[in-house]
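Table S5 (text form). Sequence records supplied for joint modeling of the four-component complex.
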Amino acid sequence: MNDRKRIRAAVVGLGYWGPNLVRNLHASGEFEVAALCDENQKRLDKFGDLYPWAKRFTSATEMLQQDPPELLVVATPVKTHRALTLAGLEVGSNVLCEKPLASSVAEASEMLELAAKMGKRIFVDHTFVYTGAVRRIKKDIAAGALGNLFYIDSVRINLGLFQPDVDVIWDLAPHDLSTLEYVLGTRVKTVQAIATSNNPRGFADVAYLHLEFETGLAAHLHLSWLSPVKVRRMIFSGSKSSLIYDDLEASEKIKVYDHGVSFDVSDIEQRKQVLVSYRRGDMHAPAIDTTEALATELKDIAAALRGAKNDAATGEDGLAIVRTLEAAQKSLAAGGTKVSTTP
Amino acid sequence: MNDRKRIRAAVVGLGYWGPNLVRNLHASGEFEVAALCDENQKRLDKFGDLYPWAKRFTSATEMLQQDPPELLVVATPVKTHRALTLAGLEVGSNVLCEKPLASSVAEASEMLELAAKMGKRIFVDHTFVYTGAVRRIKKDIAAGALGNLFYIDSVRINLGLFQPDVDVIWDLAPHDLSTLEYVLGTRVKTVQAIATSNNPRGFADVAYLHLEFETGLAAHLHLSWLSPVKVRRMIFSGSKSSLIYDDLEASEKIKVYDHGVSFDVSDIEQRKQVLVSYRRGDMHAPAIDTTEALATELKDIAAALRGAKNDAATGEDGLAIVRTLEAAQKSLAAGGTKVSTTP
Amino acid sequence: MNDRKRIRAAVVGLGYWGPNLVRNLHASGEFEVAALCDENQKRLDKFGDLYPWAKRFTSATEMLQQDPPELLVVATPVKTHRALTLAGLEVGSNVLCEKPLASSVAEASEMLELAAKMGKRIFVDHTFVYTGAVRRIKKDIAAGALGNLFYIDSVRINLGLFQPDVDVIWDLAPHDLSTLEYVLGTRVKTVQAIATSNNPRGFADVAYLHLEFETGLAAHLHLSWLSPVKVRRMIFSGSKSSLIYDDLEASEKIKVYDHGVSFDVSDIEQRKQVLVSYRRGDMHAPAIDTTEALATELKDIAAALRGAKNDAATGEDGLAIVRTLEAAQKSLAAGGTKVSTTP
Amino acid sequence: MNDRKRIRAAVVGLGYWGPNLVRNLHASGEFEVAALCDENQKRLDKFGDLYPWAKRFTSATEMLQQDPPELLVVATPVKTHRALTLAGLEVGSNVLCEKPLASSVAEASEMLELAAKMGKRIFVDHTFVYTGAVRRIKKDIAAGALGNLFYIDSVRINLGLFQPDVDVIWDLAPHDLSTLEYVLGTRVKTVQAIATSNNPRGFADVAYLHLEFETGLAAHLHLSWLSPVKVRRMIFSGSKSSLIYDDLEASEKIKVYDHGVSFDVSDIEQRKQVLVSYRRGDMHAPAIDTTEALATELKDIAAALRGAKNDAATGEDGLAIVRTLEAAQKSLAAGGTKVSTTP
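The corresponding structure-token record, covering 1372 residues in total, follows.
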């Protein structure tokens, strides 16, 4: 809470995620929930009753025209992101958009171009980068705590929910991609994708993505809507120590294993003379900041709108993810060949 | 124990695994440990002291010539399997060989051909197919308990041990491949392999294999020598229920989840009209036969040598695994393209 | 939701638990949140804003006089339960009171007597008895699935929170006691209590209660505010099978082990001739109804107020728990001797 | 291994535990397995075949008379400990005796007296005090890493095995008691015991022991032969940090939680003015020495026999445990009253 003027925000889309955004906007003390929009009148009224001061709209166009907000929050299906974001930018709003930012690189690029032209900001709701756990991982890697990274393996699987408009890659991979690009501070360079489809719509419902980052590091993602158990686990294997991030652990989300492998090449000509030594050391589970990610996110976005430089995920971050998703789609179509994220 | 004449067995290779084989041969009541062979005299004597009646040799050739066993057990590094097996067959022995059966399809084929010519049997030590857990999985799948299989995901990772002569694929994948071919009753048709190498020898130390079986079913393997934690877990995702096999669980190695996903296509023309329904039901962990796998294996092999038809893993099973390993090697060299296991 | 007239409810106490009650009263469709009361004006207003139609009071007396509710919900510290409940009954309200019902048997008895005199109902908020897990356990026990019960062990431990007005027994034991009396369908007959105190107030912060039920069955409770890890686990050991209830498990709260121990006494005179046999069978984790307990509770209370007979926890159930708590207090003072719950 | 003369040892009792002792005596390089004794000739021969140089006896008396060993190892049922130990001491042997040392304080005292008179040593096989985990706990406590200890809770439960001659207290408690006395460096002063019996022999098969040490610290033990799951877990709750020792964990047996509770009494007269503050910090799982406990034990015993002062568990340690067991038995008979371990 503070004395500064609150930033006027309007939210479009009150389905699964929108209400969480509204609740946090209201609680942040930084924003005023000025307007709410959903094409479903019943849902709009039911939820709107909790925020009696906010104006209600079933049309986003009408909402934007009547009273352009300083921040338009877009929490609708991905196919509508482009049109809503462009409309918001046109009336002079900044935009916070759900992930993935758009359905294609072309769409995302168009959105970023208009934002640049209008002098407005786009933020993308990469929620995980605002969690205490992910911020801690970034810090540990930056401090060299893991040594030289060998590889990263990520598993994000559970039963359903099948999305009506996107496949399992577009649904789940943005979480891993945004997390990894954030903690590594680099972008994905190439993707190889393999998937299977077990549903009549023909969408991928199980997928494996093999990523190579600009730095040469490799990461592998297992994504599935068809697993009987829910798993959210990343392994960061390093030369000095290794880290496991298990998002389903209540109190020990991060475990750092002081294990190591070192290779001593006595005769470089004769590479066979390699002495491998292992170290099995302590395990350490640091206490993690448990602030709700959305609270941190909105605080960061408010600060960014007020001029601060910080880690708030930008349109460029959103575009980068869409580049990888689109490359994965191409790799899939080509039978798993390596596809670059840049044309 | 029984009154039948024991089968005279000779074991070559007393490193890590050989002593387990000797102990189980002796305990089975079916075999007589007639001779032991290891080129390291000290190791031979130390271990030989526990079986004072067995003759000791530092040369396998000498051992085979002096007194050909009915069963030659080969527990040496893979590069020596061909020569030892051929030598054993030449003197009229049947052979039980460590996995993988050979270093190449060519080698394995040569071994099977000589066995056929000599009228002798080759068995391959695919230990997992003799465990209570794997036999239960085979039974459940055969009985239709899982319904239609969607996909299989297997993780076999831990820290080390780096093998001196093979990469992580040749070291770890035989376990998964032999288990899967056994429980599914079918062979791998194509492989796509991706790997990373973090050691100076340039061997793959982390690998992902994507398999397609003759039946069209897909399976994915994560193999690693660079994981801080040990995982041995297979997920069999099915339409009726799903099964998780965790080999590190002491008492609940198999969990069957009575969860399901069903798709109801109301309008086949309009594939978008798909109703997805989920069922989250009970979980069931059957009691598993805990007989040591090697005990079952040697009992099965003894029975096979006495004429029975049973599930003992044969040279053909061993050759099939080598076909997949070789195809994986080719896929790796070709950047992850799909490679057939048959020429 | 239905067309019936909603039951007018007033809630006093908007601290930790009260808001949950209000949210569920509102969501149930059975109650109207007519009035809210908290002596802290700021808390009252902050929370009251979400229910703009409800009248707000800082004095319960005033609230009861202005407009007596059909159901008074008491969510205040235990020392105030008696006065508030009596006041509610006096104006003709039924009462739903937080657990434990009162600070002493004398108080609780007084409350029940006035309710009887006024022809009104007292309910006590024994939340656990409305969970899917506890209802399933009751059903399994009643159906004889466990056979003859040997004993029950319960662990309810974590770090804090130290309560300002009650010790660890009065704070935590009501959960176990209400759960056990409900699933067993019987009352505690005797208690032995041992405790340690590590805080300057001299309150028990770690306690062990040994209970004997009317049926002769024994149960043991470990209660602690000083454990580094949180545990919520009950073991029901039975002759036919055993059940473990782990309330912290997300998806497998109940596990039924088809293990058994049977005793075969060949010569009853010579009791030493006992043949013990063990059976280690399957484990089964039934799917549990995951409806929020408070939703079921309020539905049951509404139904009870409309005349139905059901499992809603009554004042008698609340009094029984207070009897055991008071007996535990006496046992503690007497060095752990066995104390009866009935005078 | 070393050049020193090996200590001649004889082992009586080749049931469950004896063979482990023999294997470790042989492997230690410190002892010579000179003689083996078991009244069951078949068992004696089967096991004796692995140590062909050792003399075999079916009578301990005969064995002791023919060739008195320097160390007699007694691995027989508890009721025979006294006679065998006395017989060994009489012929001038030192004795390593299974736990519990004897069936009563009287017996144990008699054994210690004869040892003193003969100038010989008694060791008791308190295996846990030689594990890397328990030694680490002792070190951590001694270094003040836990701060002020609040209490200790131990759970040692599983399904069976019912022992033919002792109840669950005499069977399982010695492990906890020896571990706790060792890590705390103090003795149990009083015991309160509660138990239930569900078997026709009338033995306790579930028991709870509440201990108070000389220092005033309390510990609570849950012992059971009737639990569907196996648990081996001790909680050491401390003011600075808390430690959990889970003996069933493969790689993280000890977890130290840097959590704390502190009490700030602003007004000592008004004890109600207590400010409780919590700290939830990191968790740390140190790497533990995984040497087999028996190997360390025998090395320590050999060193003690050669004159060293070390942590080898002595007859006095064994007697202390028997004192507590006998006191527990008395408490049980008296309905759970507090019984002193010293007359």
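Note: The interface with chain A takes residues 251-252, 258, 280-287 of chain D (CB under 8 Å).
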